[in-house]
User: Which sequence fits this backbone?
């Protein structure tokens, strides 16, 4: 990644795709440092006919408390209002304008905030849909996305209308638990623990000191814990300045100390808590269920050991029956309480989920068995069989399934967790004097680093933040972020990425991006956003789950009714009914089995678990996929359109061959070329200079000092010239030679024409009026380009080149890499039009580009792929970001997409296969012919197995290997 100037260093490597804040140009006279407490809103007003209209609006709005200034233009019908958000919100300003009798148009959603919530209690897709509906019904919520596998929700809302507390309340009203993970204001936030607090006045002093510090946006004090949370502007201040401010607030006998405080990582602790909860519930359930199973299934088969169970307590009530009832009741109502709670909330929302099916099935078994107990207690002739083991075993198997599912689901985000943990905890901070000499070294927390800090990275240490090398040389292993196995050479001026490993040399690095601005943080944010985005293929599961549960309930009822009516009518022989049952009990078992086996949990997990694993795996391989939509569209790609410069080619001129003409030595040619080109700033001159230096080293040691050039002249569009010692040197094209009457013989002409046919530029070097040699300069093709195009062809994908370059160059490059179809001399909008033409012909197009000029094409394509070393605009416009500047990742992205979609389809086969095969067997289709029936507890085990098999199937994507890898 080349440095393109200071401005570029201030830009994040990857911009947040969720940036929806409205930027409004400030009116003249505003302080450009920006008063953080004052905001500006611009909007259009309809119906302004004259100056008096605008005056009346200005006077009405100006009277509002908190409005700083109002300007209304009667000609443009536009208003600019500056206001203090603590005193008034934009919505009130809008309402006031409407009250004056004018219509407000183009009113921007001021400050769209984003918050992320952890959602608890979701079991299947109907749950995630219910949460989404509940969120969207909250006034002020603009957009809400709920991820079932991630168990998170991302909510975009207007903070003037609602807040995160109200959003959490809405989720809880829908019957789910919700915790705030982060809000939009968390972007640059630091948590500090303060020591030396003796009274509330101390906290007031510290708070006022912090609030007066430039760059501090908000201070939140925790009085009990003596903790403070500060949100700040990283361009103005940073954590260390804030700690120093707290120290400086102390005076006299009051000394304050602040230390970095890291709030516990809730995500991991919650996951562990959930795993522990299911494990404990399963063990408690087993404690009661196993004896029930032994008393009902095992001991009766082992006389005389089970004879005591048949001892009658009162009338026909036996010891075994009473014990089964006592042991089953806590399983049904205490351990199984979660199913009742889930069912209540689902039915209150007028939807049905897994909890409804489980509650129906277990209640049917339990209450029928209770009826048997009461009947046996009151009758001295009644003979009946209870199903307590069905209810208890069913709950135990479902809890085991949920436990294994939660454990497996935790592994789906392993790749992302590994990325998050890449950054080191500490860094070595250097203090430099005015001459750049090191005064001191301090080891501090990485979280306390600020922009422009100079840090020392020793061999074997990790780079803590993004920055630029200012001193030293080394090789840095970037494989953990880019997937590129070969260490990259780093020298002064080169960028380094936080989380990468310094291999051999010591580097001094100036921090350019810290905290959430680092490439690592943004990769994690991008992947987390992608994991929440719902793939279109998931719509199938959502549609099925909507009508699936009511259908299953109906099927279960019809199964029970069918078997019961047929049994009562004597249509099937009595021998079919087991000895210890009657027709009603047999029918009830079939009905409960249908209810339980057909649960659609696995269906809801089929897509999100695969998308989670794939996006995490892609990120660790250097391919950032922005969500399920991009993942799904990429598998359909049959045409890849490549930009040329910086995509198929390296993007920098380089010399590919040199020619020496008779009468001169190679040393002479190189020395004269280096002397003449050393003062030129042209990229082509730099390429020639670099090559000439290397050639000179190969032909003996170069002179210690480069001779000075006298009378140095630049000839725009032609080359340079000057005197080196007593010799006249010209370096440039044929036009420069002719203007100085340098003869060009047939041999030279032939070399020039051969070079130009290969789309190379010929740079001639003349010494004392004779051509001494020539250099062929080109923008070299990336070494992997030809193999990538060839591999794409083998995948059934055609490759096309679209470039703004001339036809001759474009055709030569296309021929070199094996591309048949070329569109040259095309402007940025023309590139987008070419893609639309291909789409009209039925092609699914992926566009691969790196520059701002590729953005319209990246957006127009079905799948836009931006080379990661390209511009921020291209990365913003793309669906897939290839972090490395390597074309092999185009194949990785498409191949990973194909493998993921195949895995999702396989998951659907698993999920629906269990239901389609399981339901008829549970309904007793095989029973008349084979005597095989599926007891309810076994149906529960099958249902749990279907969810686990789907998650494990998705986890197999963790073993994904790139189809194409280059050793060089």
Assistant:
């Amino acid at each position: 990644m080349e440095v393109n100037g200071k401005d570029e260093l201030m830009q994040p490597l990857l911009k947040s795709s969720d940036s929806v804040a409205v930027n409004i140009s400030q009116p003249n006279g505003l302080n450009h440092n920006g008063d953080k407490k004052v905001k500006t809103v611009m909007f259009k007003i309809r119906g302004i006919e004259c100056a008096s209209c605008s005056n009346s609006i200005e006077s009405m709005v100006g009277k509002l408390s908190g409005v700083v200034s109002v300007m209304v233009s009667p000609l443009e019908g536009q208003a600019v209002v500056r206001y203090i958000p603590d005193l008034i919100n934009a919505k009130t300003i809008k309402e006031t304008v409407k009250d004056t009798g004018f219509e407000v148009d183009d009113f921007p959603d001021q400050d769209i905030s984003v918050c992320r919530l952890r959602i608890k209690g979701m079991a299947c897709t109907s749950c995630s849909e219910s949460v989404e509906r509940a969120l969207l019904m909250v006034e002020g919520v603009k957009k809400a996305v709920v991820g079932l596998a991630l168990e998170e929700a991302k909510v975009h809302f207007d903070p003037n209308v609602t807040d995160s507390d109200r959003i959490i309340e809405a989720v809880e009203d829908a019957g789910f638990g919700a915790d705030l993970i982060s809000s939009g204001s968390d972007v640059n936030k630091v948590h500090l623990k303060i020591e030396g607090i003796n009274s509330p006045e101390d906290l007031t002093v510290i708070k006022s000191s912090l609030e007066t510090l430039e760059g501090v946006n908000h201070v939140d004090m925790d009085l009990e814990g003596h903790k403070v949370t500060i949100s700040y502007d990283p361009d103005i201040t940073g954590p260390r300045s804030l700690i120093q401010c707290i120290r400086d607030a102390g005076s006299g006998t009051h000394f304050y100390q602040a230390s970095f405080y890291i709030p516990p990582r809730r995500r991991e602790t919650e996951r562990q808590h959930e795993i522990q909860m299911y494990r404990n519930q399963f063990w408690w359930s087993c404690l009661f269920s196993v004896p029930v199973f032994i008393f009902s299934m095992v001991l009766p088969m082992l006389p005389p050991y089970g004879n005591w169970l048949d001892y009658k307590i009162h009338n026909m009530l036996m010891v075994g029956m009473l014990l089964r009832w006592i042991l089953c009741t806590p399983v049904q109502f205490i351990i199984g309480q979660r199913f009742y709670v889930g069912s209540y909330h689902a039915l209150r929302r007028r939807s049905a989920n897994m909890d409804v099916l489980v509650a129906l099935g277990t209640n049917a078994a339990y209450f029928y068995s209770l009826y048997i107990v009461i009947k046996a207690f009151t009758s001295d002739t009644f003979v009946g069989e209870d199903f307590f083991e069905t209810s208890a075993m069913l709950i135990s198997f479902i809890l085991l399934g949920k436990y294994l599912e939660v454990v497996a689901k935790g592994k789906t985000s392993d790749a992302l967790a590994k990325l998050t943990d890449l950054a080191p905890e500490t860094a070595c901070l250097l203090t430099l004097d005015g001459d750049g000499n090191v005064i001191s070294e301090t080891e501090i927390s990485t979280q306390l680093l600020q922009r422009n800090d100079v840090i020392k990275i020793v061999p074997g240490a990790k780079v803590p933040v993004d920055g630029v090398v200012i001193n030293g040389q080394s090789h840095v292993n970037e494989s953990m972020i880019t997937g590129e196995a070969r260490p990259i050479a780093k020298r002064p001026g080169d960028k380094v990425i936080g989380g990468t490993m310094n291999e051999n040399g010591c580097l001094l690095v100036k921090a350019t991006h810290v905290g959430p601005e680092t490439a690592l943080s943004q990769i994690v944010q991008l992947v987390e956003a992608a994991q929440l985005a719902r793939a279109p293929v998931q719509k199938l599961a959502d549609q099925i789950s909507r009508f699936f549960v009511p259908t299953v309930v109906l099927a279960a009822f019809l199964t029970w009714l069918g078997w019961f009516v047929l049994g009562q009518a004597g249509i099937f022989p009595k021998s079919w009914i087991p000895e210890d049952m009657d027709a009603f009990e047999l029918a009830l078992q079939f009905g409960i089995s249908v209810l339980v086996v057909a649960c659609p949990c696995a269906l809801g997990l089929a897509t999100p678990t695969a998308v989670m694993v794939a996006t995490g795996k892609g990120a660790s391989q250097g391919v950032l996929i922005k969500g399920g939509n991009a993942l799904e569209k990429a598998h359909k790609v049959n045409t890849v359109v490549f930009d040329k410069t910086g995509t198929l080619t390296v993007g920098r001129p380089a010399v590919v061959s040199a020619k020496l003409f008779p009468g001169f030595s190679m040393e002479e040619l190189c020395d004269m070329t280096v002397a003449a080109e050393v003062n030129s700033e042209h990229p082509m001159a730099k390429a020639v200079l670099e090559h000439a230096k290397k050639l000179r080293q190969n032909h003996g040691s170069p002179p210690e000092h480069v001779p000075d050039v006298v009378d140095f002249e630049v000839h725009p569009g032609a080359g340079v010239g000057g005197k080196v010692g007593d010799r006249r040197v010209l370096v440039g094209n044929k036009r420069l030679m002719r203007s100085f009457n340098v003869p060009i013989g047939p041999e030279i002409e032939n070399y020039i024409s051969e070079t130009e046919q290969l789309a190379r530029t010929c740079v001639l070097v003349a010494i004392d009026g004779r051509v001494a040699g020539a250099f062929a300069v080109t923008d070299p093709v990336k070494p992997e380009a030809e193999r990538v195009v060839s591999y794409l062809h083998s995948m059934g994908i055609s490759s096309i080149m679209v470039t703004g370059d001339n036809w001759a160059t474009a055709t030569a490059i296309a021929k070199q890499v094996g591309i048949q179809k070329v569109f040259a001399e095309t402007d940025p909008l023309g590139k987008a039009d070419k893609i639309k033409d291909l789409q009209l012909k039925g092609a699914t197009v992926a566009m691969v580009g790196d520059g701002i000029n590729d953005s319209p094409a990246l957006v127009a394509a079905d799948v836009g792929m931006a080379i990661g070393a390209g511009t921020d605009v291209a990365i913003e416009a793309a669906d897939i970001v290839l972090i490395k500047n390597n074309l092999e990742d185009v194949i990785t992205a498409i191949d990973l997409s194909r493998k993921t979609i195949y895995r999702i389809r396989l998951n659907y086969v698993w999920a629906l296969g269990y239901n389609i095969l399981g339901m008829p067997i549970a309904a007793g289709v095989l029973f008349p012919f084979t005597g095989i029936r599926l007891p309810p507890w076994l149906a529960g085990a099958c249902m749990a197995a279907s969810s686990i098999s789907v998650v494990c199937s998705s986890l197999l994507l963790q073993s994904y290997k790139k189809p194409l890898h280059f050793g060089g």
About this structure: The radius of gyration is 36 Å. The chain is about 45% helix and 20% strand. Residues 888-922 form the longest helix (35 residues). Confidence is low (pLDDT under 50) at residues 1-36.
